[in-house]
Every structure is written in structure tokens, then in C-alpha cells.
Amino acid sequence: MFIPEHYKNNDLNEIHNFLKNNSFGILINTIDGKPWGTHIPLEIGKNRNGKDVLVGHIAKANPQSKNLIDGDEVLCIFNGPHSYVSSSWYQQEEVPTWNYVAVHVYGSVKIQTPEELTNALYELVDKHEKSSEHPISINDMSKKTMRQVTGIIGFEIIINDIQAVNKLSQSRTQDHPKIIEELEKQGAAEKAVAKEMRRLNS
């Protein structure tokens, strides 16, 4: 994606933390010459060779699954907080803009074995059940329920390239206090952008 130099994020640890905390992404490949996207959880991790990977699964009924072939390159998009920024918050006249955090991940597909898929599902469910009052476990599910797993395909995406952007009014540092103040008066999304701006300036 196009990223002006002053908005690029090259901090790999920060990017990995972002991916862990914003793991619901969009998997994009091509079907019959047209882009195709599916919204799914994509968890960052490492494979047996110690390489960074994204792990996910999709339904076999999804046409995208027919085009997930070992070695093919795909794009995964992850969005963080974003908000409109009014130029009325600036000291000088300027056009409004949009602040946001996003990551694009490019990688090569590796289809999982049934055992690898099951292990990945255990990890996914355990991660998101931690905060539940009455957490469930795949271990406790019946064979009948678990037969649904035969309707999905699991995969790893071996990461080849990561492009990350923090567009957070870096070119208007003199206006940061006012922008943050105004964002914090608004909803959850705007407050999240204000938090990112504070973190960037800390």
C-alpha cells in the first residue's frame, strides 16, 4: 500500500502486538481474475521452522478455498482505530483528514493437515475463552459437534512482507493537543485514535 515515509511503522515488535490485538482481518486472493476477500480471524505465530506466520481457516463452501493452493501469495489486511479529523481543530486553515492505523501482510499459503487444523482451533478457542465467565473448551465438545470441522480448511500464511502505517497527524505536531482533546470528547473509535496519538508522542 502507499505509505508516505513519515507514516511508516517499521517497529516489528509493535506490529506483531498490533496483529495479536487486532487479529480479525481480511484474507484476499484472486478468483477468476477478480479480487476476493473473506473476513476471518488470522492469528500471528511461528511455524515449526521458526518463521512468522498467520494461521486461519475458512469454509470449504467458500469459493475462496478452492483457490488457496500451497505456495500461492495472498494479502491480509488488518485495521486498527480510525477517525475523522476536523481541520477546525488546527491553528491554521487546512483541509480535514482521516487518522488511522493499519497493517498489510503478504505471504505464501501452506494448507494445514487435519492435525494442524485441530491444534490451531484449540489455540484459537482457548485464547478467546480466557475472559469468559464460563469458558468452553474443544476438549469438552462431542464428536458430533466436532464433525463440523470437516467443513473447513486450515492454512498458514508464511509472511514475506509486512507494510504498516500509523497515520496520526505526525505532520501537525503543533495541533496534537487540540486534536487529542477533541477526539476524546467523542466515541470509542475516536478515543482509541487519541490513545494511539498519545502513545506515539510518549
Architecture blueprint of SSEs:
Elements lengths: L11 H10 L2 E8 L2 E8 L1 E4 L5 E8 L13 E13 L11 E15 L2 H16 L13 H4 L5 E16 L8 H8 L4 H14 L1
Helix pairs in contact: 4-5
CATH homologous superfamily heading = Electron Transport, Fmn-binding Protein, Chain A
Strand order of the largest sheet: 2-1-5-6-7-4-3
Number of domains: 1
Q: Give a quick account of the main beta sheet: strands, pairing sense, barrel closure.
A: 7 strands, antiparallel
Low-confidence stretches: none
- Discrete helix count: 5
Percent helix range: 25-40%
* Overall spatial form: elongated
Overall pLDDT level = 94
Stated plainly, the CATH topology is called Pnp Oxidase, Chain A
Cα Rg: 20 Å
Q: Beta-strand level of the residues, as a percent range?
A: 35-45%
Which class best fits the helix and strand makeup? alpha+beta
* CATH class label: Mainly Beta
Number of strands: 7
Please state the second-level CATH architecture.
Roll
Report on the architecture of this protein:
There is one protein chain. Helix 4 runs antiparallel to helix 5. The protein has one domain (5-169): Roll (Pnp Oxidase, Chain A), CATH 2.30.110. The chain contains five helices and seven strands; from the N terminus they run H-E-E-E-E-E-E-H-H-E-H-H. The chain is α+β, with helices and mostly antiparallel strands. A hairpin with a 5-residue loop joins strand 3 (43-46) and strand 4 (52-59). It has helices spanning 12-21, 114-129, 143-146, 176-183, 188-201; strands at residues 24-31, 34-41, 43-46, 52-59, 73-85, 97-111, 152-167.
